[in-house]
Amino acid sequence: MEDTVKLNERIIVALDVDSREKAVQLARELAGSGCWLKLGLELYALSGLSLIDEFKKLGFNIFLDLKLHDIPTTVEKTLRVLVSSGVDMVNVHCSGGYEMMARAAEVCHRADKTIIGVTVLTSMGQQEIASLGVQGSTEQQVLKLGKLAQKASLDGVVASAQEAPILRQECGSEFLLVTPGIRPAWSEKNDQVRVLTPKKALESGSSYLVVGRPITMAENPREALNMLWD
Length: 230
Fold this sequence. Notes:
Number of helices: 12
Strand content: 15-25%
Helix content: 40-55%
Low-confidence stretches: 189-194
Largest sheet: 8 strands, parallel, barrel
CATH class: Alpha Beta
CATH topology: TIM Barrel
Shape: globular
Number of domains: 1
Order of helices and strands: HEHEHHEHEHEHHEHEHEHH
């Protein structure tokens, strides 16, 4: 395996915390470690885009995880605002359809930003998928949405590491696979269903691994980050 800093460059730490102060404290503790930071809905609701410049000054790449899903024009206009900030990566729901994704990709690529699509949330299992009226298995749905995202020129998708091998096989080596639901062997699953350990996820073809509570709830977040590879 690569050295720890190189491996950490493939980790996106989810700052799913309930205050700006906690987010800043975590960022300062993780500065220089090589990892990315992810701002999700909760933190965005608290701070908007105001934290991004602060995190960029600390040297982080930023994934703004808002999972946009609306009519194409609304998503396009929203992304024009978001990509004018210091974010490096944004996402939309693949279920918004081809036109929405294609227009989103055009906006992001014009601004030299990475855009990925959400396939099936990692908190959802086969039963939940079926309850939505989706035909076929979770893997089949993830692959269908992943291929649609690639056709719409998205740079990659968010998917469980369990679906990474088939996505890598079907979508090629350059297609980004960002995988939440990553849990080291020493941590709890919490509300995630389709999970893998960090090493297993990389072996399965994941490009980036999203890790939250095992790091952010740890007494020493920097140490917990480095322990992912134990």
